[in-house]
Design goal:
The complex is a heterodimer.
Chain A lengths: L1 H25 L15 H10 L6 E9 L15 E9 L5 E7 L2 E7 L3 E6 L4 E6 L14 H12 L3 E11 L2 E10 L7 E9 L5 E8 L7 E10 L16 E4 L4 H5 L7 E3 L6 E5 L3 H5 L14 E5 L2 E7 L4 E5 L3 E5 L3 H9 L1
Parallel strand pairs in A: 6-12
Antiparallel strand pairs in A: 1-2, 1-11, 2-3, 3-4, 4-5, 5-6, 7-8, 8-9, 9-10, 10-11, 13-14, 14-18, 15-16, 16-17, 17-18
Chain B lengths: L1 H7 L8 H13 L2 H24 L5 H6 L5 H11 L2 H20 L2 H6 L4 H35 L6 E2 L5 E2 L1 H30 L5 H20 L28 H28 L3
Antiparallel strand pairs in B: 1-2
Helix pairs in contact in B: 2-8, 3-6, 3-8, 5-8, 5-9, 6-8, 6-9, 6-10, 8-9, 8-11, 9-10, 9-11
The chains are: A alpha+beta, B mainly alpha.
Chain lengths: 344, 281
């Protein structure tokens, strides 16, 4: 009898262990202790990033944490708040593979050196496009932390304090945290931009954008898994599967239409830059978007002032005003800065 | 593999484990309701196959991926049925296993019999697991056959969601992984169902709590303000089965949902054991 009661207690222990395990699973992997790294000046770090050699073959998982507060746009689930991931493979010599999973489908882009194949499992279509050998593989700016971080550093140094603020562990690799803060004179919604730089390869690993009034990042793009080393060559070939529709991509579809638009006007510099562009004619816009552009006529709130009237769209890091006469002003600034720019 | 070892140990005083498990197996699989349910489950992949062929219109999601790509069918069928139908089978077996026996008054005999209470729990858990395995296998096997015969494969190959093509052998491997993962999730449901079963004399209570619980979990998982709850909910990982259709397979969600299922198994199994050992005959 005693042993039976003892075993009953073991049973309860197992149940409690299960509950604790469930709790442990729910805890995010979290940042470990900040790694100890030799100090480096911000200037040296930025320089080493710009001069860094190609990291060579790699396989990585890129995660985008989006808390920008953008209105939901049909067809672009990544734009709305939430987390999305993508897998990237590179052979270090221009061939690459990008795979963007969605709930029950996947988009895959393979660059085998001569042809770029884009596969969409939703409608089983393959779009192929021949690329010259001298051409760089197309990389989405948002999902490539390297390009995104380097651009941010170059643009913001003039009006920001740049400092190396401690270290962090990103994707299991020790990294320096490069922090850019706007100078007090800048009128911006942003509080700081943090870039985690790999201590060994000097590859930007993570880009974090923090906005005023929130301790959680408004946007974070970075590697969550990263391994260097030779990749399976089979990853960089693509054969259209049986039953798929293969189409040739038209040559540079964007260029034919873009020159019709006037150059956007830029007001201010640094963090409080405001870009004022002219929208396509209103009648075309109301037909649900001319070139697949999302219909923006139903979002935002009505505002008006000496500059006219329009709709204001607020997000965590940026504000945009679409005026009734077809101008769009946008920037990482409060609405007042936008209206001042529109009045000029 | 303690089951096999104890079955071959000749010098036991009490009934050998193998005989107990065999008896439970016969008792579970000979029940007409189990057989009827398995028969109905076999119809589901066939109905999906016919529906996909008749509709002849490519929709989105997994069902859309079946068109012209029959080997997706077993995985899609398992993923769809994991939402409610397969847990229903497991919950029924678990309800009969303890609460059903208690309702018939036969549990007293089992508790008083010279069979250790621990072995009784193992026996009942084994019966539930067998139902989970058989139900999943029925769906998977009928799904493969219906996929190849009714829908027709892409030249007998599987086109993955990533756009690559897998041969028949590798495709079977993927279906096998999906089936194994599904059994793991069902075992978690079964363990919790057994724990509820050990506390009640009414089999319906078990059915209602398990299905109601799954629905509540689904609702909680769909509320954005409660997204911090998601790692705790068993149903969060129920859609991970489709990940075997990616190439290379992404193991993250499959692994984490399996770990979650193991935790639920520990909770359910521990509570069941504890309750059965301490309850009065």
């Amino acid at each position: 009898m005693a042993s039976r009661r003892g075993w009953a207690r073991v049973g309860m222990g197992v149940a409690v262990a299960g509950a604790v395990g469930l709790g442990l699973l729910a805890v995010p992997a979290g940042a470990g202790a900040a790694p100890e790294l030799p100090p480096v000046s911000a200037e040296d770090l930025v320089t080493s990033v710009v001069e860094a050699k190609d990291p060579g073959p790699l396989h990585a998982t890129v995660t985008l944490d989006n808390a920008l507060g953008l209105p939901a746009i049909p067809g672009v689930p990544q734009a709305a708040n939430g987390t999305s991931t993508a897998q990237v493979w590179s052979d270090g010599a221009g061939k690459g593979r990008l795979s963007v999973p969605s709930g029950q489908g996947e988009k895959t882009i393979v660059d085998d050196g001569t042809t770029v194949w884009a596969w969409d499992s939703a409608d089983k279509t393959v779009t192929k496009k021949a690329v010259g050998t001298e051409q760089k593989p197309p990389q989405a700016d948002v999902t490539d932390p390297a390009a995104a971080a380097q651009k941010a550093v170059a643009d913001l140094r003039a009006t920001s304090t740049v400092a190396v603020d401690g270290t962090a562990e990103v994707a299991g690799r020790p990294a320096y945290e490069l922090v850019l803060r706007p100078l007090p004179t800048e009128r911006t919604l942003l509080r700081e931009v943090r870039v985690a730089v790999d201590s060994e390869k000097r590859l930007p690993l993570r880009l974090t954008v923090l906005a005023n009034g929130s301790s959680d990042p408004a946007l974070q793009v970075g590697f969550t898994e990263l391994e260097f080393g030779a990749q399976d060559p089979g990853m960089f070939t693509f054969t259209p599967p049986p039953g798929a529709t293969v189409t040739e991509a038209p040559d540079r579809p964007g260029d034919a239409q873009k020159p019709q638009r006037p150059e956007p006007k830029v007001v201010g510099d640094g963090w409080d830059t405001v870009v004022i562009a002219t929208m396509p004619p209103a009648d075309a816009q109301q037909q649900g978007g001319r070139d697949g552009a999302p219909d923006l006529s139903s979002i935002g709130k009505e505002v008006s002032g000496p500059w006219g009237s329009g709709r204001e769209i607020d997000t965590a890091v940026a504000t945009a005003i679409i005026t009734s006469d077809g101008r769009v002003a946008a920037g990482a600034v409060p609405a007042q800065v936008l209206t001042e720019a529109l009045s000029q | 593999m303690t089951l096999v070892e104890s079955a071959t140990t000749p010098h036991r005083r009490s009934a050998p484990m193998g005989r107990l498990l065999g008896a439970e197996l016969r008792w579970v699989l000979r029940r007409p309701r189990t057989l009827v349910m398995l028969g109905l489950f076999a119809l589901v992949p066939i109905l999906i196959a016919v529906g996909v062929v008749v509709a002849d219109r490519s929709g989105g999601g997994l069902i859309g991926a079946i068109a012209g790509n029959g080997l997706v069918l077993p995985v899609a069928a398992m993923t769809l049925m994991l939402a409610l139908l397969l847990p229903l089978a497991v919950a029924m077996a678990a309800a009969d296993a303890i609460a059903g026996e208690a309702a018939h008054g036969t549990l007293r005999g089992l508790l008083l019999a010279p069979v250790g209470r621990g072995r009784l729990v193992v026996m009942k858990a084994f019966g539930v697991l067998v139902v989970a395995v058989v139900a999943t296998l029925v769906v998977a096997v009928v799904g493969v056959i219906a996929g190849l015969v009714v829908v027709g494969g892409a030249d007998g190959t599987l086109v993955t969601l990533s756009g690559t093509t897998l041969g028949l052998g590798e495709a079977m491997g993927r279906v096998g992984i999906a089936a194994l993962w599904t059994v793991g999730q069902l075992a978690a449901v079964g363990a919790v169902a057994l724990a509820i079963s050990a506390f009640t004399e009414h089999p319906l209570v078990v059915l209602a709590s398990v299905l109601g619980g799954l629905i509540v979990f689904g609702v909680l998982g769909a509320i954005p303000a409660l997204d911090w709850l998601q790692p705790y909910l068993l149903t969060t990982g129920f859609s991970a089965g489709a990940d075997v259709l990616r190439d290379p397979t992404t193991w993250g969600e499959l692994g984490s949902s399996t770990l979650r299922a193991l935790c639920y198994m520990a909770i359910g199994g521990g509570i069941t054991t504890s309750r059965m050992l301490t309850r009065d005959a």
